[in-house]
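Listing S7. Sequence submitted for prediction.
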Amino acid sequence: MTTSIITQDMLTMNSREIAELVDSRHDHVKTSIERLAKTTYSEDGTVKRKAVIGIPAMEEYLDTLGRRATQYRICKRDTFIIVAQLCPEFTARLVDRWQELEARQYPALPDFTNPAIAARAWADQVEEKQVIAAQLAAAAPAVEFVEKYVDSTGLKSFRQVCKLLNVKENDFRAFLMARNIMYRLGGEWVPYACHIDAGRFVVKAGTSESGHAFNSAKFTAKGVEWVAGEYAKFQIRDCEVAA
């Protein structure tokens, strides 16, 4: 029995995305994934049906009613096997989705066979390093402040982190969504399970005076320090694109 090994930088797709692609219920897709990841044996101990995908990583999310539910995180190879078993006619949709994901992570490389383009790419890289060095130097006092801040405080709300980083709330939400740090669910902003497991968030459940159940996500001290660094890198990339 093989477990799928998924690293932090690896592109993946969750089982809910697959369910949307093939127009199927999520619970049905999960059942198919579990069947494909299981090796079954005959009474005499011989292999009856061998697993064709690795055991996928499982993570939690909050459903539309704010209840905890689970989904699988699937690597690229296994998504094609799953879709082929569920609805082969939707393979084209899957290919399009992977092209979209990969285009976001891996920008097109310049044509280095052209001397002029290669020279320009080299010059751009030098300029990029100079810009980053200057921006990091300018940000040093703020980084030092953040480090001292998170050493002496506890959990922080979304708005508190925005004030700390001096960023507009809408811009910060867009960043959190673009980097797959948080997502909107039932009117609430929820961190992805991997960031909760990494100790960057704490999600607390509560009930309002009207009896409405809700979940409140707070940044931990570790999370504030981490997201400050990620947002700084995000701004640097935006500056490069604008230039």
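Caption to Listing S7: primary sequence and predicted structure tokens for the chain studied. The longest helix spans residues 115-152. The chain has a mean pLDDT of 77.
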